[in-house]
Amino acid sequence: MKIAFYCPNKPLAHPHPSGDLIIAQGISRELNRAGHTCKEIAAFRSRWFWKTSRGWREALIALRAAYRAAHDFHPHIWLTYHSYYKSPDVLGPAISRLMGIPYVLFQPMYATKWRKDPETRIGFYLNRLAIKASHHAFTNNLNDLEALGRILPPRRITHLPPGIFPEDFQHDDEAGKAVRLHYGISPDTPLILTAARFRNDVKFESLVYLFKSLALLGRFRKDFVCLVAGDGPMEEALRRMADALLPGRVIFAGRIPRHELFRFYSAADLFVFPGIGESLGMVFLEAQACALPVVALKTGGIAQVVKQNRTGILVPEDGGEAMARTIDQLLRDPEHLKALAANGPRFIRNERNLRWNYLELARQLEKIRTIAL
Predict the structure, then answer these.
(1) What pLDDT, in 10s, does the model give residues 322-337?
(2) Which among 42, 126, 298, 333 would be 20 to 30 A from 13, CA to CA?
(3) Alpha carbon of 40 to those of 35, 66, 314: distances in Å?
């Protein structure tokens, strides 16, 4: 089966890593591995395009180019990953209709609040048109199911749980020891790991929350180190905050390639990231796959990727007090930590395994194509 693939938010070759980009690349790779030909048909990034006349012109140019590419490719189905109010799919609905092939969405997002704001209203309606035009919508977030159900019948919506490829993230004791040695962290020093892009948004808010929480933790204990993996435009502000709140306790490791992150997960005792505004959070899955217990806020979709009291602890958002006390309690209870760590890889392998999820996606796409014939 030939699949025309499109990612309106971030094309597959986008230089800045993110959870969305990783998911899109994984879908493309696994569909090809399953024996299909999944080809990215357009690289047009539709994010906020309607705000300028230039954006509209680029959208029209992209529409013509994508139609020519699809016409030459002769796909059996069109699959778009992640259409939402900021980056609606304005190519797939038109081209799939012209070519007479099924139009399918993976992880569309829909919320009526965006039609009330003049800045987001056009994006909302363009995204709404895309969702309504779809033959089927797949979502990996339970929180999106109810919203999608407002404009699509249940038979046209399928939930596939979020996940990762377990073989990409496995605990490596020797690699973890090497990371500690590299940064001068002794084997018996409690090590808290966090990882994020330093953007001026909820990622930055989460790191600020974490540093404030760790400052509170400093009232209980003085023997911990926080290792921060990531970079971005807010790095200088974060370094100043770390120096003020946690002098000598925070090490900035810079951006770590994703394929090297298992070494850092293997070095730590806890993975802690508040996850403010996180719809899911790939880093939580990666940490658990490497047998690293998680501490995060009980917010958004994090409960879908962290099993409470089984692979980690989710705490209320109270300014950082609950997070600080939970970290302290876990570090004082090595048996509890060991139990949480042991459960993580099993949870990922058995319940959050993308290898199985994307095989099911491939089967469903074949079924949709057959029905449409």
Answers:
(1) 999 999 999 999 999 9
(2) 126
(3) 16, 10, 38
Query: Is the CB of residue 192 less than 8 Å from the CB of residue 327?
Result: yes
Q: What is the mean pLDDT of residues 160-180?
A: 95
Structural tokens at position 361: 């996606």
Superfamily for domain range 2-163+353-372? Glycogen Phosphorylase B; (3.40.50.2000)
If we measure between CA atoms, which residue out of 348, 309, 343 comes closest to residue 329? 309
- For the chain, the structural domain boundaries read 2-163+353-372, 166-351
Residue 354 contacts residue 347 (beta carbons within 8 Å): no
Which CATH class, in words, describes the domain spanning 166-351?
alpha beta
Same fold, 2-163+353-372 and 166-351: yes
Q: What is the mean pLDDT of the chain?
A: 94
Residue 61: burial class (beta carbons within 10 Å; 0-12, 13-18, 19+): exposed
The predicted-structure confidence for 199-244, as pLDDT tens digits, reads as follows 999 999 999 999 999 999 988 888 999 999 999 999 999 999 999 9
